[in-house]
Amino acid sequence: MQALTADDAFLTTRLCGRVEQVFSRAVNLFIPETQQLLTLLSEGCDNAPNSCRLALTQCDTLFRPGEQVQFSDSGIAVGEDKWIDTSSCQRWLAPKWALTAEQFQQIPWQRWSETLHQQLQENETLFLYRGDNVFYQEIARVLQQRRQDLYQALVQQYNVENAVAEFIGLGIGLTPSADDYLVGLGVILFIRGHPAEKYREVFLSALSRARKNTTLLSAVTLEAAFQQRYREHIGRFITRLITESEKLTIQHITDIKNIGSSSGCDMLFGMADACALSHWSGGNYVNQDSC
To answer: N or C: which end of the chain has fewer CB within 10 A?
Structure first.
C-alpha cells in the first residue's frame, strides 16, 4: 500500500516496533527503543504529528495488534504480508505560528471564547456531563474543580505547575478528557508572542512529573502540543484566528469536534478557556501599561 503524507518524525524512523492498537481509521505503532508511538491514518484523516496517511479507507480489516513492524529507507514492513511504500510519500510540514502585539490586541478573544463554548453540548464532553451515571458525574465534578484551579493559577500566576500536574490523566480513554483540554489550552496559550507563552516550560515540567498518571499516547500528544505540533485541522483554525479571525467559520470548529469520539470537544473546551484567558491577559496588560 502507498503512504501519502507523513511528518519528519515518522519518515526519519528506522527502528523496529509492533502494532499496539487498531481502530477503524488509525493504527498505533509502538517503538520500544524510544518508548514512542507513531500512527498510521486512513486517507480521510487530516495530517498529524508522528503520523502517516495511507491510501486506505479502513485500517481494522488489515492490521492486527501484536504484528511486528520494521522501518526502512523505502518503506515499512508490517507482519508477514504487508508493505507500506514510503518512497514517494509527501512530507507534511506543520506551519509555525507567531503573534505580534498588534495581532493579539485585534483578535476578539472573548467572542471566540463564547462561540466555542456555545458549540459544545452536554453529551459531547465529560466537562459538561449532566446524565444519571454516578461515575461520570463524579469525573465531571473533579474535572471542573481542577479546571477552575488551573484557570485561577494562570490568572494569579502562582502554582501553575502543580495545577497542571494534578490535572494530567484525569478522565477515561486513551487520551483522558483533562489531557485533551490541556492540548486545547496549549494550542492558544503557546503561540509564539502570546503573553502566556512563558508557561510552556512549566507545562512540560508538569508533564514530566505526571507522565505516569496518563497513557503513553496521551503523554506523546501532550508533549507535541506543548511544543506547538498539532493536527492539521487545529493548525488551520490557528492560522485563520491569527490572520483573518473574522473569517473563522463553524466548519473550522466542526473539523476539530470530529477528532476522536470526544477528544476534539475536550480540546475545544480548553481552547475556549484559553481565549477567555487571552482576553483577560490583553486587558490586564493594557491596564498595566496605562498606570
So the answer is: C
